[in-house]
């Protein structure tokens, strides 16, 4: 088992899948000569050449559509958005073309492709560069949406996404690229749609995804010092969501906090809370609480940004509240 | 001057062209001899006439079915524009690709999708070419490399560009033919896609069907440049203008572009000047709001079917009674399509949740034609996709 960065894990996934299947190519802004805005594609141009590692103009809608057309006719594109903030320009192709093609063609045209890139707030990038898109994107039938939180999941989920016959959105954590973790040697695939218990406890469940997995684990560490042992359930894939894993953890702990990076309205927490009230009503000892970004665009000032973001302290406060330990 | 290529394929705009179609050679397909025997030419002309008549009669039945509530939703008729789709598609090989907009009934038929299967789709039946899941705006056929009617203006243009990217990636010699209306050229997707096609030199033919109105907004009220083929200059791309009511001219101009795409892998932007004889959809008046009755009457004189028929009469290629026979035959075919669609069963309710994802049909490698293996279209050399472990 090697300890590598999240960035290198993604790079390995791309390299291995491109070695394995000539139909796989990488396209996006600065992916080739510049070696990737975040260096995820470092070395790929040198190894695979410009036929398969393709720099584009700054034209998200256009190259997202190019990916759709290539996927409809037999290739397996990996389309990189420099960040998901820019992908908003391409959402017509993601939502109206990629997600619906199989359905509206009556099953004739699958769109086996990946849209990937960094997601969520980094540090002091201001309102337009600091947003988590998974709750928007998981709304759409026809898409799969994964949010790896660790290097091992980054590699395993991206490889599975590239092999999947559907459009899969891979939302990477901009702040995760430098984080390190153990990644199994050899072929490592993480199935789509399967959550993982990242920490096991019995007093409460923290259900989360993506970059918030690390925040949840920090919160779990601190709670453990007070003798509170929590389950940390990493959803990993938010569409399709592993409802069985949510039910299992809630039936074990009888309390749940849903931690997500984005805003609360129509958020992941709302969806998870619905699963819990529907399937685990009699198992609950307290209402489900949520931790999320403040309901405002992301501010620039350091102190305001810190106040806006969900963090370990806010998560701990929510856990203590559902355990009635907050008074 | 910049490095603009000559517009060798240009013809005068339709407004100045005589009512008679151009007598120029029609055999643009590279595989055809330069001077086919007269009987072959006659057969070709008869087939073009039959195909346009079939589309016309088919869509007349569509209007009737819409009024009776047998067709729902939106329905955008192609009546008046048949020469563009028919002429352009007639020069393709079966392994080439066609992608179009929501005004797609007639082009689907021109590509060889049966009137039965198109009408069944419009009636929302399981036997439809999209199995009742698509409707009027979303006709698809993998068998015919017909990549769909697309409902968002401009969205099919980047997709076509990606199809051409894939052809080049695989080293194939197919081409992608992409239709859209003149209003789409003001859309960002058009600019983004054509820039990449020009930059990467992709085998794609973009056919602007300039019917003068984007819904109810005249070209002059929407575009800063009225000679819209000129926009190709911005992408270092070949361009052409053609009389879109003259099926033989369309065949020739598109044929040249197809040959250029096939042999040189170069894109072309073609402006086909045509006119829509009906409203934008079934819900607007044919004339009286955004265009005058007088204008429409003037344009009706340039009916593409009448023009070809007159041309063939002049050359003694067809008699009045043969035209009547052709017409009777296509009317019967449309009646058959109607009866077939009317009597076909609706989709099973279980179809509702099928095809949402590939797995929804019973596993990633399902045999319904949607799996990656079936999706490769002769890509060759690539391993079959292994499934994620689970």
Output the CATH topology of chain B. Answer: Rossmann fold
Write down the Rg of chain A: 20 Å
What is the terminal-to-terminal distance of chain A?
45 Å
Rg from alpha-carbon coordinates of chain B: 21 Å
Instruction: List low-pLDDT spans of chain B.
Output: 1-33, 361-390
Work out the helix count of chain A: 13
H/E series of chain A, N to C? EHEHEHEHHHEHEHEEEEHEEHEHEHH
The averaged pLDDT of chain B comes out at 86
Q: Approximately how much helix is present in the residues of chain B?
A: 25-40%
Largest interface: A-B, 55 and 67 residues
CATH architecture of chain B: 3-Layer(aba) Sandwich
Characterise this structure.
The complex is a heterodimer of chains A (327) and B (390). In chain A, the strands form 3 sheets. In chain A, strands 3-2-4-5-7-6-12 form a 7-stranded mixed sheet, sandwiched between helices. By secondary structure, chain A is α/β, with parallel strands linked by helices. Chain A has 2 domains: 2-183, 3-Layer(aba) Sandwich (Rossmann fold), CATH 3.40.50; 196-322, Rossmann fold (3-Layer(aba) Sandwich), CATH 3.40.50. Chain A is built from 13 helices and 14 strands. In chain A, helix 9 links the parallel strand 10 (204-208) and strand 11 (230-234). Chain A has helices at residues 6-20, 44-48, 60-72, 84-87, 91-98, 101-104, 134-137, 151-163, 212-225, 243-253, 268-279, 302-308, 312-322, and strands spanning 2-5, 24-28, 53-55, 76-80, 114-119, 144-146, 168-173, 180-183, 196-199, 204-208, 230-234, 237-239, 256-259, 289-291. By secondary structure, chain B is α/β, with parallel strands linked by helices. Chain B has one domain (47-346): 3-Layer(aba) Sandwich (Rossmann fold), CATH 3.40.50.970. Chain B is 36% helix and 10% strand. Chain B is built from 10 helices and 8 strands. Chain B has helices at 38-67, 82-89, 105-110, 115-122, 156-170, 188-200, 247-264, 293-300, 304-314, 320-343; strands at residues 97-101, 146-150, 176-181, 204-210, 213-214, 217-218, 238-243, 268-273. Chain B has a 6-stranded parallel sheet, with helices on both faces. In chain B, strands 5-6 form a two-stranded antiparallel ribbon. In chain B, strand 7, helix 7 (247-264) and strand 8 (268-273) form a beta-alpha-beta unit. Chain B is globular and about 50 Å long. Residues 1-33 and 361-390 of chain B have low confidence and may be disordered. At the A-B interface, helix 3, helix 5, helix 6 and helix 8 of A face strand 2, helix 5 and helix 6 of B.
């Amino acid at each position: 088992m090697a300890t590598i960065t999240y960035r290198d894990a993604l790079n390995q996934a791309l390299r291995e899948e491109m070695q394995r299947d000539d139909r796989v190519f990488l396209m996006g802004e600065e992916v080739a000569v510049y070696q990737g805005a975040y260096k995820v594609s470092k070395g790929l141009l040198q190894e695979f050449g410009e036929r398969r590692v393709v720099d584009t103009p700054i034209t998200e809608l256009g190259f997202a559509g190019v990916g759709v057309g290539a996927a409809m006719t037999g290739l397996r594109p990996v389309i990189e958005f420099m960040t998901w903030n820019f992908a908003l320009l391409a959402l017509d192709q993601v939502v109206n073309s990629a997600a619906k093609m199989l359905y509206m063609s009556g099953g004739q045209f699958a769109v086996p492709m990946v849209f990937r890139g960094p997601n969520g707030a980094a540090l002091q990038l201001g309102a337009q560069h600091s947003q988590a898109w998974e709750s928007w994107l998981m709304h759409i039938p026809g898409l799969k949406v994964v949010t790896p939180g660790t290097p091992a999941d980054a590699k395993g989920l991206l490889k599975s996404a590239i092999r999947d016959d559907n459009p899969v959105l891979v939302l990477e954590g901009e702040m995760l690229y430098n984080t390190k973790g153990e990644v199994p040697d050899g072929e490592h695939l993480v199935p789509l749609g399967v959550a993982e218990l990242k920490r096991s406890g019995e007093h409460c469940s923290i259900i989360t995804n993506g970059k918030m997995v690390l925040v949840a684990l920090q919160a779990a560490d601190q709670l453990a010092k007070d003798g509170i042992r929590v389950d940390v359930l990493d959803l990993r894939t938010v569409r399709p969501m592993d409802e069985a894993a949510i039910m299992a953890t809630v039936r074990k702990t009888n309390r749940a906090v849903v931690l997500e990076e984005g805003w609360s309205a129509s958020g992941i927490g709302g969806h998870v809370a619905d699963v819990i009230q529907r399937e685990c009503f009699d198992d609950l000892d307290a209402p489900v609480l949520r931790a999320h970004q403040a309901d405002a665009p992301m501010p620039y000032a350091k102190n305001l940004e810190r106040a806006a973001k969900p963090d370990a302290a806010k998560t701990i406060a929510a856990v203590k509240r559902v355990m009635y330990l907050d008074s | 001057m910049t490095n603009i290529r000559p517009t060798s394929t240009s013809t005068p705009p339709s407004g100045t062209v005589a009512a008679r179609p151009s007598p120029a050679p029609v055999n643009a397909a590279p595989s055809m001899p330069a001077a086919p025997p007269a009987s072959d030419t006659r057969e070709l002309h008869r087939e073009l006439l039959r195909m346009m008549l079939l589309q016309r009669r088919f869509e007349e039945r569509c209007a009737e079915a819409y009024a009776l509530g047998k067709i729902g939703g939106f329905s955008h008729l192609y009546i008046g524009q048949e020469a563009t789709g028919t002429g352009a598609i007639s020069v393709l090989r079966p392994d080439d690709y066609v992608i179009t907009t929501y005004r797609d009934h007639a082009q689907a038929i021109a590509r060889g999708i049966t009137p039965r299967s198109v009408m069944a789709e419009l009636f929302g039946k399981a036997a439809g070419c999209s199995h009742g899941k698509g409707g009027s705006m979303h006709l698809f056929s993998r068998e015919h490399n017909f990549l769909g009617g697309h409902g968002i203006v401009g969205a099919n243009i980047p997709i076509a560009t990606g199809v051409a990217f894939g052809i080049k990636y695989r080293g194939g010699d197919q081409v992608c033919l992409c239709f859209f209306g003149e209003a789409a050229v003001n859309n960002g997707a058009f600019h983004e896609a054509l820039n990449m096609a020009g930059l990467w030199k992709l085998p794609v033919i973009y056919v602007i069907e300039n019917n003068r109105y984007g819904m109810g907004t005249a070209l002059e009220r929407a575009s800063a440049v009225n000679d819209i083929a000129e926009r190709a200059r911005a992408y270092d791309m070949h361009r052409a203008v053609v009389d879109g009511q003259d099926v033989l001219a369309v065949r020739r101009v598109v044929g040249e572009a197809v040959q250029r795409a096939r042999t040189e892998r170069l894109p072309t932007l073609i402006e086909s000047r045509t006119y829509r004889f009906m409203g934008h959809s079934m819900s607007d008046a044919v004339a009286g709001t955004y265009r005058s009755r007088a204008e429409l009457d003037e344009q009706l004189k340039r009916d593409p079917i009448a023009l070809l028929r007159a041309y063939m009469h002049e050359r003694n290629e067809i008699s009045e009674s043969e035209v009547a026979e052709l017409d009777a035959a296509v009317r019967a075919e449309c009646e058959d399509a109607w009866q077939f669609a009317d009597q076909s069963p609706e989709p099973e309710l279980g179809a509702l949740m099928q095809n949402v994802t590939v797995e929804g049909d019973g596993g990633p490698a399902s045999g319904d034609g949607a799996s990656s293996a079936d999706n490769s279209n002769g890509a060759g050399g690539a391993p079959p996709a292994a499934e994620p472990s689970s």
